[in-house]
Amino acid sequence: MAMKIYTKTGDNGETSLFGGKRVWKDDLRIASYGTVDELNAVIGAVITEINNVELNAVLVSLQNELFVIGADLATPMENTNSLIPRIGLNNIERLEKIIDNHDSQLPPLKNFILPGGSKGASLLHLARTVCRRAEREVVALSKCEKINSSVEIYLNRLSDLLFVLARYQNFSSNIADVDWQK
Fold first, then answer.
1. CATH number of the domain that residue 93 is part of
2. For a pLDDT cut of 70, what percent of the chain falls above it?
């Protein structure tokens, strides 16, 4: 028997965290992982616009890690269920290696740049701004509740990576970044 898409348990404005605790749907925790989900969807849109197999593989790996972050944020730290994955230092180090690898292939930045260039790069810049919003929401959540501190670091590094990937997408497509005109 197939599972129904709707449960009706959230019709009064509440939802459940992993472990069963009920919270309001406007709770900072829900907003945080909701924005991470939005970021994941934007990255999905990016993938439809980029024809670079290697870059798309990186983006799909990011989508998978964003699912881990969603599960991490949906699970209060006091829940020690070992089946719930948590983002960690190894994930952050992986992002740093990808940043360094792609950035080393780009011409040095001499000006601030505007979001733009190719459609794929523009969408990567959009993903970067959604990532920054997710980071702000996670920081706000961390002031109220104990969370995995690696989530904040990961999102900070991810926004840097998305910036580099936007530049890389333009560069590999022979499309210039758009310089900011003072």
1. 1.20.1200.10
2. 89
